[in-house]
Each structure stands twice: as structure tokens, then as C-alpha cells.
Amino acid sequence: MDHFDYVDGAMQVEQVPMAAIADAVGTPVYVYSTATLTRHVSVFRDALATLDNPLIAFAVKANPNAAVLATLAKLGLGADVVSGGELLRAIAAGIPADRIVFSGVGKTAEEMRLALDHGIYQFNLESEPEAEMLSEVALSMGKRAPVAYRINPDVDAGTHAKISTGKSENKFGIPYDRALESYAAARDLPGLDVQGVAVHIGSQLTDLAPLEAAFTKVGALVAALRDAGHDIRTADLGGGLGVPYDPALPVPPSPAAYGEMVCRVTQGWPVRLMFEPGRVIVGNAGALLSRVVRVKQGAQAPFVIVDAAMNDLLRPSLYDAWHDIRAVTPVGQRAAANVVGPVCETGDTFAMGRDMDVVAAGDLVAFMTAGAYGATMAGTYNSRPLTPEVLVSGDKWAVVRARPPIEALIAGDSIPDWLAD
Questions:
Q1: Residue intervals in the chain for CATH 2.40.37.10
Q2: C-alpha to C-alpha distance for 158 and 322, rounded to whole angstroms
Q3: CB 286 within 8 A of CB 28
Q4: Of 299, 344, 410, 415, which residue is the catalytic one?
Q5: Where are the beta strands (DSSP E) in 23-155?
Q6: Is 394 annotated as a binding residue?
Q7: pLDDT tens track for 294-337
Q8: 226 assigned to a ligand binding site
Q9: How far is CA 147 from the centre of its chain?
Q10: How far apart are the first and last CA of the chain?
Q11: Rounded distance, CA 243 to CA 258, Å?
Q12: What CA–CA distance (Å, rounded) separates 234 from 98?
């Protein structure tokens, strides 16, 4: 459920007309709904209500906007970060360090020092060399780093290959069958406090069976590690629960169904459970608002050329991802159309032959379910400024990231002395 609705024939977000935002800020622009964020956090938390003190750490990579993070911080969420930059964003937004988990395969010594300085809750280690480096860094600071190993369970998540992370050929984690050996070595590293196990098998999962298979393996590993004398106190079950993009496809499992499975599989585990939801919290809470530049007749269907492009919303180009495209003020007619952006790439295509609202030059369209992996993946290809972002709360709204002027982008370059003349 989201809070983008039609009132008197025009789309509004909560109590704010989308057209009013477009007129004031220009397009393209990302628009986020506080009410939707709040509801999604509540639904996810309710799904885990029978667990004892779970840590819900929002996956910052899904949407790192400071206002979004501050909203989630006020709702009590922690953060899952994968870079020093994301760590600093989370801290700046008010997320306490003792609710922050640091994941990712390429943590540098500098990032490790930063996280240790702030006193984060846990590092999710992805390799034995990383464990050795972190131990050395922690010792140099007179600290012990709380860690878990991320386990690669060799489970196919059944999602897009580029966002599948739990198969043996993926770069993430240590192999499941090497876990006991790796934990034994980590226990001998004086700078580490080995406290947990972590797993994350992919993103946009639409079936609970792979998750249950991975969690079952984690449960067996927790028991084996404790039998081997390890003081395992946490289990990070990752994120990845999918959201509905294409209404023609089956609806992904609900958080309630996910929570029921988790509670059943983890019953009796002597650990604190941790979760890293991202898309399921912010996906439906955002839309990319764009204006039609012109409509050009194609060989089979018209090309609807909009002012948003692949640099603003990369998912369709990168993953062949599907986003519902709606007219902000529909005229009541539908037809097949190709929706494309102005970037000089054939890959700058949002949809081909899409049955959608008929639109004309100057009309507004909204790309739905764009709150996750939208603005955060944006770039400046074709010298296009980054997309602004707006947060709505009831009848109030604010620009929470302004559109930078093109002059600022140009000013970021420098011309060497030998070309100055």
C-alpha cells in the first residue's frame, strides 16, 4: 500500500498534488511519502512482534537521503551500511551507532577505523583476510571489534542475476562448508569479538522458500558453532523481501508471511535476530515525477519522450526492471506506447509497447515504486544534473535534496595550467 492516490481526477501524494510539486521544483523529481514509510515500518515491525528485541537495520543503500533516514531513525530503525559514507550519513541522520551494522566485501582500513571510532554494533565480515585486517586495526586502536561472518549458503534466491548474492559463484561471504574453520581462526585473532553469524542471499525475492533454506542452514551453523565453544549471540538474517512492481505478476510474500516463517524457523535460537530491510520499507514510498517532452510516432507504437532518463532511474536499463507508469491527470484513454528518455543511448528506455494512459506533450507522468534504488543510483551522464528529492508529510512538503545547477557540475572539473591559455 502507498499514499499516492487520485483525488478529483489528479494524483496527489498524501494531501499534496503532484502537479504542485512539479510546478514548484521542476521535473524530473523524486517524491517520497512519510505516511507510506511509517506504515511500512509498522507492518514490518508487527511481523516480527513475537521476537525478543530484534534489530531492524534499514539498508541505507536502498535510499540514503538524509530526510528519509531521519524519518526512519525517529521510527526506531537502525542501519545496515556498506561504506564509510553510508555510515556517516546514518550517524548524521540520528541513527545511533549501536544500531548500525557494517556489511560489504571491500571495507578499507580507514573505514574500519571510522566504524570503530563510532562504536558500531557489528561488522559483517566477508573473508578471512578482512578479519585479519580488522583485528590489526582494532588492536592499533586499543579496541576489540564485534563481528559476524557473512555465510554464503549456496542458495539460489531466484531473483535477477545481478542482485543475487547467496550462490557459490557470487562474491559475497565465506562458503558454508568452510565456516567452522574460519570461525576457529577468527577466535584466535585478538582484536575480534566473534559474536554472530550473518546471511543475505539477494534482493527483490518473491518466494520465501530460498530464504527458509538459507535460514535453516544458519540455524544449524549457530548450533554447531556454539557446540564448538563459540559465544554466538547474534544472527543477521539480511533483507531482500520483494515488493510489487508489475501488477500482472503475483504479489510477493507479505511481511506477515515472512515474519511467520522467520519465527517458525528460528524458534529456540539463543541469539538476537537482526534484519536488513531496504526495498520493502522505501520502494512503494517513492515515485519519480516526470514531464512529457513530446510524443513521436514510431514504427509500431508512439515514443513518449519524457524528461527523466536512465541517469535518473537506472533500474530499467540495468536490470530490465518494470515500473508502473501513470499519468498524473489521466484522460481516460489507454494505448500502447514506448516510454523513453532524452539520453543518447538506446538503453535509455523505460518501457516498450506498454499499455498505459494516453499522454501528450506537457503532461506529467509518475514512475511508481521508485523509492528504492532510484535517486541513490542516479548519475550525471550527458551532463544532466542530479535529480532533486522531495519529502511529503500530510499537507506539508519540502525539498530534501535540491537540483544542483549545471554550473556546479562544470565547476567540479579543473583545467590544467598548460591548457589555461
A1: 4-31+283-411
A2: 17
A3: no
A4: 344
A5: 29-33, 55-59, 78-81, 100-102, 122-125, 145-152
A6: no
A7: 999 988 899 999 999 999 999 999 989 999 999 999 999 999 99
A8: no
A9: 23
A10: 59
A11: 12
A12: 14
91's grid cell: 550517524
**Domain ranges in the chain with CATH number 3.20.20.10:** 34-280
- Dihedral sign for Cα atoms in the order 392, 397, 400, 405: positive
CA distance 29 to 181: 50
Please give the CATH number for the structural domain made up of 4-31+283-411.
Answer: 2.40.37.10
pLDDT digits (tens, 9 = 90+) for 237-255: 999 888 989 888 888 899 9
Cβ distance 225 to 183 under 8 Å? Answer: yes
Largest CA distance in the chain: 74
Check residue 372 and report its DSSP letter.
S
Instruction: Consult the annotation and say whether 354 binds a ligand.
Output: no
**319 carries a ligand binding annotation:** yes
- Given CA atoms 159, 105, 265, 258 in this order, what sign does their dihedral have? negative
Helix (H, G, I), strand (E, B) or coil at 78: strand
pLDDT tens digits along 46-69: 999 999 999 999 999 999 999 999
Please give the CATH number for the structural domain made up of 34-280: 3.20.20.10
| Residue 10: other Cβ atoms inside 10 A | 16
- Sequence-ordered strand ranges (E) for 52-160: 55-59, 78-81, 100-102, 122-125, 145-152
Based on the residue annotation, tell me whether 263 is a catalytic residue of this protein: no
List the Cα angle 274/2/292 in 5-degree steps: 120
- C-alpha 311/C-alpha 308 separation (Å) is 8
